[in-house]
Hints:
This protein is α/β, with parallel strands linked by helices and 637 residues long. Strands 4-3-2-5-8-7-9-16-17-13 form a ten-stranded mixed sheet. Strand 2, helix 5 and strand 3 form a beta-alpha-beta unit.
Amino acid sequence: MSAQVLLPFPFTLRSASTSTCPDPLISSVSRAALMAGVSEPLDVDDLGDTGAPRDDALPFDDELVHQRRGGARLRQPPPPPQQQRTGGQPQGRQAAPASTGVTWPKPQSTQPPNQPPPPQQARQRAASTVVSLGAPDASAAAEGPAAASEALLARRREAVGEVHPRLRLALTLPWVGSTFPSWFPYFLASTNRSSYLVDWLIFHEEARLPPAGEVPPNVLFFDLGRGGLGSLFGLKLASALGATNKLTRYMNLFRAAFRDFAYIITEYKPTHGTVFADYLAGYSHWSYTDSDVLVGDLPLHLSLEELTEYDVVTYHFGDAFRLYLRGQFSLHRNTPRLARLWTACHHLGAGLLDELEAKHMLVKRLAAEGKHGRTRFLSAEGCYSHAVASASGIRLKFAAKAFADWSDDREFYLVDGAVRRCPQPTQTWLPPGEAPPLDLSNPWADEVGEAACEPLAPAAAPLSDALPALQRTQGAPVALAIHANCSRWIEERYRLCANMSEDEAAVGYEVTLRDGAWSARRVVAAAPRGGPAGYLEAAFLHLQRWKAQLGRLRYGDAALPRIRGRRLFKLSLRGFEPIDVEYDRARGASLVTYRPYRPEPASADAAPLLHRDVAELTDEEWRALEERRRTARTPPR
């Protein structure tokens, strides 16, 4: 059976370096100026550290919260990694010299006159970081909508090595909180293979960063300082809406919203092209994203056609009949018009201030009643998807290139940066000595039985500047009609549903909108390099449900072992397990070198808990596990 490839991003394993931002707000408005007006209009207390620990520290998911209304309380997103004052290294160690990184010039100033300079402490902190990294210069953004600037490409080539000669993508991730989720090192490691084409820009507020050695060179951290995210969102959105006379109010309300309800930040994903415009200058494309994903081989999955023939591209999970932009990956060409499509949504555009005030008043009312609960949340998957599809002349594509853990699959495999699973949901990979011999006399032997699953095959294709499609279309396009009978978590007037059944969609379709007409085409995988292989591959895996279990673990536990340079893992509800075997991208795994993984529990009492499926643990066992985490003297590094 030939492998079916969904379409991941390019990742190459290289030496990592951490980046930081010398001034918290690269909008060219100083931090002091932003902080100066954060007191009057609202009778809220000092808008303090939004990174304060919360009792719920798991990522928030728009769709899942609506699917599980009335069920277990969902948790908030974990905080983004912060740039350590020693450049990502544990405090007390000497930082690497600043010459190890790349210094990006800041954009030309748009700072209003007579504003005070940034605080002295911000300058001192910037001087102590491993890499002094500002936003790309604004002049570098003038190249063309389908090409990255030469200035940006030169900087990234110096930082990461080989890069695509014309295109560069930025994935934006704002993080509210002081620490990242337990699986974050696996997320970081998964991004490494995409360094050829993709950067991740992570914005945080003095969060605790992972060690510099665990940060790939295509992951850039920007410390905006305490309350900086709310200030930046308020400043940029008020300016974009022509409401600079209410700038202080916008900033106060955003700071309060992000402080009290971290998950609210996901509501404003569509605005990232405006809010982070200074950082995105020079990139050919941008997308918002999440931390609860494991990224695949993106340069192999992104095709040149998608990057040049479409305005917005999103990857779905085989549910092509639901036509909404996925929060994990919705790629936009970096143009001013596309960056402002969010203004068509009332709650993001003309009604933004009213919406922020309604959220704040709800919080105050609950507090006055001695209650704690969630404030209003309007999913970005609803109105914004409708607004994009309704824009004049938009070219939109929904491609079947993503996995999600809400499927029936028992295991997923991280293979040197690729994200794979077995052809059948009930299958799992069996190590040498455990797999039954393959009956070659049976013509269906590669489609039935455990022996058909071979996720450790070579890379699906070599890396190429041409970015050829790993999927090919089959048959003529079929015109689609649109209705509103799906995606019930979205307000009905914004639902976009194709007239195909769930079973039809699962076969594999891409849906496009061009010249105002919707159509669908069947897609099949091109034959991978190296011949037949029994696996399916995707651009990324969304940890929509398993993150609840993974979030209860601690990095370094037996079920969440430290990566330590390993490149092959399998993931299940039991956690991550290294696959100890020699692997080469051109030849695949050498199974004669396979050795069973022997975890070494951190303590004797942890072993009986972490060798079992986390879903099977009793409440007492969970409490013991969580108590061990709480009483740990220092967090894992």
